[in-house]
Design a protein that fits this description.
- By secondary structure, the protein is of the alpha/beta class.
- The chain folds into 3 domains: 2-11 and 200-285, Cobalt-precorrin-4 Transmethylase, domain 1, CATH 3.40.1010; 13-102, Rossmann fold; 104-193, 4-hydroxy-3-methylbut-2-enyl diphosphate reductase, catalytic domain (Cobalt-precorrin-4 Transmethylase, domain 1), CATH 3.40.1010.
- Helix content is 41%, strand content 18%.
- The chain contains 11 helices and 12 strands.
- The strands form 3 sheets. Strands 1-12-10-11 form a 4-stranded parallel beta sheet, sandwiched between helices. The chain has a 4-stranded parallel beta sheet with strand order 3-2-4-5, sandwiched between helices.
- β8, α8 and β9 form a beta-alpha-beta unit.
- α9 runs parallel beside α10 (227-238).
- The chain is flat and about 60 Å long.
């Protein structure tokens, strides 16, 4: 059985920088309380590594609830970004604030503020209960309208004369997002469009779909918490026409999945450590031909 390594895969620049920043803070404040407000990136292996480095995880249903569990010391905002209210509250409580927000997410925050300042209301395409939309919508919940699907794009209504703009979460399916944007543009021809799917997400999705044409299936290495990892599974199956399996570690591989297959592709989410992906590749290569 041939194992095909799909590239690019694995860590993106935002994840690399967030982990570097968190480890540095943990080392500099050894012995002092340091907490990450939610999963720094959506991967349990990274989280355990950071906890070993002295950065504890504070996980809660939302960032404000998590902030209530941090009384002193340093708080690290995750790569997904946070709302202005979270930033202001943390500083008002005297916490040392470290912002590990991905630069792509920061760019979306800045864009949304400019659109609001220009008098537009913003339709934001994203997944409910994900921290990235939570942070963006928190900029102005009254004027930022979160939708997830074409059906919600069909249902959303605005008063006549409302000036609109649309943007999106950075880690969605690029094809699903385009379809929703196109539907909004049909309904609201004057809507200002800003597709903010990040380059790393686009490149990984395009590479996986392109490679799938010559593969029997694709293994995606990543956490079920990871939006971009789940989207890789989705686009391989919907756009590439091949079965895809999401695994967090090599132990989750089931040899029965690959019976009768000759070429297996491997890719990884943007928050998946390289050593975990390597272990999956090694385990696949060790499987007997069937």
């Amino acid at each position: 059985m041939e194992v095909v390594r799909i590239a690019p895969r694995g860590y993106c620049h935002g994840v690399v920088e967030a982990i570097r920043m968190a480890k540095k803070v943990g080392a500099e404040h050894r012995g002092e309380p340091v907490a990450m407000l939610g999963y720094l990136v959506h991967n349990e292996h990274v989280t355990r590594e950071l906890e070993t480095a002295g950065v504890r995880l504070v996980d809660a249903p939302d960032r404000m609830a998590g902030l209530d569990q941090i009384d002193a010391g340093t708080v690290i905002f995750t790569a997904h970004g946070v709302s202005p209210r979270v930033v202001e509250t943390a500083r008002a409580r005297g916490l040392n604030v470290v912002d590990a927000t991905c630069s792509d997410v920061t760019r979306t925050h800045d864009l949304v503020r400019r659109l609001l300042d220009a008098g537009r209301e913003v339709v934001y395409i994203g997944k409910r209960h994900h921290p990235e939309p939570e942070g963006v919508v928190g900029i102005d919940p009254a004027r930022i309208h979160l939708i997830e699907s074409i059906e919600e794009a069909d249902a959303v209504e605005f008063a006549p004369g409302t000036r609109l703009a649309v943007t999106c979460q950075t880690t969605l399916s690029m094809w699903d997002t385009k379809a929703i944007i196109d539907r909004l543009a049909e309904r609201f021809p004057d809507i200002e469009v800003h597709n903010e799917i990040c380059l790393a997400t686009q490149e990984r999705q395009e590479a996986a779909v392109r490679a799938a044409e010559d593969l029997d299936c694709v293994v995606v290495v990543g956490s079920t918490r990871s939006s971009n990892s789940r989207r890789l599974v989705q686009v391989v199956e919907e756009r590439g026409g091949r079965r895809a399996f999401l695994v967090d570690t090599a132990d989750e591989l089931d040899p029965a999945w690959f019976r009768g297959m000759r070429r297996i592709g491997v890719t990884a989410g943007a928050s998946t450590p390289t050593q975990i992906t390597r272990a999956v590749i090694t385990a696949l290569e060790a499987l007997p031909d069937s």
